[in-house]
Amino acid sequence: MSSTKRYASVDALRGLTVAGMLLVNNPGDWGHVMDPLEHAAWHGCTPTDLIFPFFLFIVGVSLALAMGGRIAAGAPAAPMAATVLKRAGRILLLGLALHLLAWWIMGKSELRLPGVLQRIGICFALAGLAAIYLRERAQWGLIAALLLAYAGLLLWGGSLDKVGNIASQTDAWLLGRFGYEWNAQTGLGHDPEGVVSTLGALATTLLGLRAGEWLRRAALRPLLAFGAVAALAGLLLDQLGLPLNKQLWTASFVLWTGGLACLALALAHWLIDRRGLPPVGRAFGVNAIAAYAGAWMCTVLLEGLGLMAPLYAQGFGWLQPLVGPYGQSLAFALAFVAVWALIVKVLDKRGVYIKV
């Protein structure tokens, strides 16, 4: 298949993950969020914990689809690498700009440096370079090395609790007050998008890269087989003492979520590309970063200007006697997603695709 072919299934899957991000990030009332829409407190994996790894997996898939044909045809590496690094830099800078906006408008005490877009930019760059400069066997070797080295580091570090694990301790030393959580008195801290756990996130992106090659070659059997084996391996590692943990992005979490993402990709391809079902979520998928960044700015402005609380109370308070506080929170989150679904639908109909 041509590397320029557009897969509606990939756009749809990417779009559903973005819609999921908006849903879990905007509950209106953080004190009454339904359990499936919460991240695991520490160890474990909820449906919400699948969203970010699925997105990074699709980043890898998209890299394979965009560059696989050119790489196979022997296109010069340097121009492709420059393009990858430039786009990765723009994504990273956008993430920093959004955090700067939140720090300024919401009056946050500290500016947080790591974040979702920053992690996406870093993984995009490194996975893109791996696609260009490493052959298939070397890419698998890199995935294995990342998983083994990172798992070994975490286990060697001893404790796997929130502040005692070696990843959080290293991040606290590297980031200090610029991390998500930091205690100036103890010097302890933690960041769910920290530096060290990006090793696991990169492995997820590289799994997506390999899955994208299978998709590009219409090889669904390896995609399904690997998905099932990887998911089972992740659960086995969890039982053997390396728990599923999104915030640490453990090797078990990489395999569990990567396996599920492979199966989801195969299912979406079969249903949408082959059977012709509607690509639900596609409009979000073709404007993914723009939708995420726009929703972030919308939330920051509503919070910073003091409009979020009255909007929630006056616009959705009438629902509480009918569905309770948890239902009210869910209704607000669904309405937020619906507004942005309308925005991206209009952009798609007008052929407006905002690229970073």
From TrEMBL:
Q: Which InterPro entries match?
A: HGSNAT_cat (IPR012429)
Q: Which domain of life is it from?
A: Bacteria
Keywords from UniProt, A to Z, are: Acyltransferase, Membrane, Transferase, Transmembrane, Transmembrane helix
User: Can the keyword Transcription be found in this entry's annotation?
Assistant: no
**Molecular function per GO:** acyltransferase activity
Heparan-alpha-glucosaminide N-acetyltransferase catalytic domain boundaries:
6-155
Where do transmembrane segments lie in this chain?
50-67, 88-105, 117-134, 141-158, 223-242, 248-272, 284-309, 329-347
A Pfam family of this chain: HGSNAT_cat
Does the keyword Phosphoprotein belong to this entry? no
What PANTHER family does the database record attribute to this sequence?
LD22376P (PTHR31061:SF24)
Q: What is this protein called?
A: Putative acyltransferase
What is the native source organism of this protein?
Answer: Roseateles oligotrophus
